[in-house]
Every structure is written in structure tokens, then in C-alpha cells.
Amino acid sequence: MFEQHVRGCRVSDDNDAWIKRWEEGNTGFHQEEINDHLISHWERIVPDRQSTVLVPLCGKSKDMLWLRNRGHRVVGAELSDLAARAFFLENDLVAEERQSGPFVVLSAGGIEIWVGDFFELTPQRVGKLDAWYDRAAVVALEPSVRQRYLAQLKLLLGSKAAGLMLTFDYPAEERNGPPFSVSFQDVEQVFGERFRLKLIDCVDLTEGNRWELSRVWKPVIELRS
Ligand SMILES: C[S@@+](CC[C@H](N)C(=O)[O-])C[C@H]1O[C@@H](n2cnc3c(N)ncnc32)[C@H](O)[C@@H]1O
């Protein structure tokens, strides 16, 4: 990931590309419906409604509403100010706004979105986090950043943490991400050091896939300390 300094801030090419995608409306990853796998599996993985849930790289995902409606405090992290504001606006929530170091924090009704670089969040700022939900987050990151993503989760999550991760698994040579191909084995290789993993489901999305890949699977993975 190439990094440069602009007006005292660290900016990476990848971060700029995401911000631009939101500005241009190039957001085919966004889902208007609540994710089926979240609905099917979350309550078993994280039965305690008091748990605070981290949603890294959250975009304007409506899944945050579902988590909040279950009783969780939700902490999202998103680079794009436009995406974060759209989340509140489109869901008829009036957000309060505050500054915390390099982050603008928008919050309403038990949901906070920390606008800035996920990798700069600290436990001192966001408080104790018990669980996390990764839909289209790890697959959005360059493979070389996965270890850093794990390190950041380790930093932010409590010692007894559980998570749900949804990825895409396809022949990596057929396409350059994002989304990058992240198989169950890839997840085991990186995250197995810290979490116990279970492949709960693996959905075949090959037929009619929009990237015209010869095979696409969606592994549904449970992770726990
Ligand atoms: C593929 S989208 C997925 C969004 C969301 N999880 C969903 O399911 O709709 C990836 C998101 O991560 C954000 N993002 C990428 N890198 C980030 C970073 N370092 N810190 C915070 N957000 C980031 C992008 O702006 C984008 O909204």
C-alpha cells in the first residue's frame, strides 16, 4: 500500500480510491436488505445482547440497524464521510457529531460510525468491544494488509471475542480485487493464530456471477477466542 503525506495527514492510495468510489456512486457492494447469514447465525454466535459489536469498514450497511435492534451497541468504522452521513440520513436517524483525535464520530440511537481509517482506531477511544461482524471487510483489503487487520482486531477486541465473517472465494488469478479472494483456508492461516474457526456454510454463487468468474463461493465463518 503506497502512502504519502498530504497536509500533515497520512493518506494511502487505497484509502483515496475508496473515498472516490463513494463520491462516484460506485458502490455495487452495498445491500439494501439485511444479510441472510447475519440473521441466521448471529444470535447463536453472540447470544449476549449487551455485547458491543465492531463493524469494521462498515460503509452504510443496514446490517448495523439489525444489530442495534437486537440490543447491541454498534461501533462502525468507515473512511468515507459521505457513506457515514448517508447511513444516518437514509435511515431517518439524526446524528450527533463530535471530534475524537483524527476521527469525526457520528452517532444516533446506539450506533456510532467512526469516520476515518480503521487502522487508527484505539481501544482508548472506542472502549471495550466484544464481537465483530465482517461482511465485505477483509475482502476489501489487499492480501498484504490481512495481518495488520488481525493485529487491529486483537488490539480492539476483548479477550473473549466472537465474530462472523463473510468472504468470497474464487480463483484469484481470474480477477484482481477488491473484493479479493479470501478462502476459508486463507482465513485459517491468518486468523487461526488468535481465533478458533468454524466454516458454518459455503454458498455457491457461481451461476450468473457479475464478475464472470469460473467459480465463486461465499464461505460463512464463525470465529471465537
Ligand atoms: C466493500 S465495502 C463494504 C462495506 C460494508 N461492510 C457493507 O457490507 O456494505 C468496503 C468499505 O470499507 C471502507 N474502507 C476501506 N478501507 C478502510 C479503512 N482503512 N478504514 C475504514 N474504512 C475503510 C470503504 O470506504 C468501503 O465503504
Describe it.
It contains seven helices and eleven strands. Helix content is 28%, strand content 30%. The protein is of the alpha/beta class and 225 residues long. It starts with a strand and ends with a strand. It has a domain at 35-72 and 116-224: Rossmann fold (3-Layer(aba) Sandwich), CATH 3.40.50.150. Mean pLDDT is 94; it is low at 1-11. The chain has helices at 13-24, 36-45, 63-69, 81-90, 123-126, 146-156, 184-191; strands at 3-6, 9-12, 52-55, 73-78, 96-100, 103-108, 111-115, 129-135, 157-166, 196-204, 217-224. 36% of the residues are buried. The strands form two sheets. Strands 5-6-7-4-3-8-9-11-10 form a nine-stranded mixed sheet, sandwiched between helices. Residues 15, 18, 29-30, 57-59, 61, 77-80, 83, 117-119, 135-137, 140 line the site of S-adenosylmethionine.
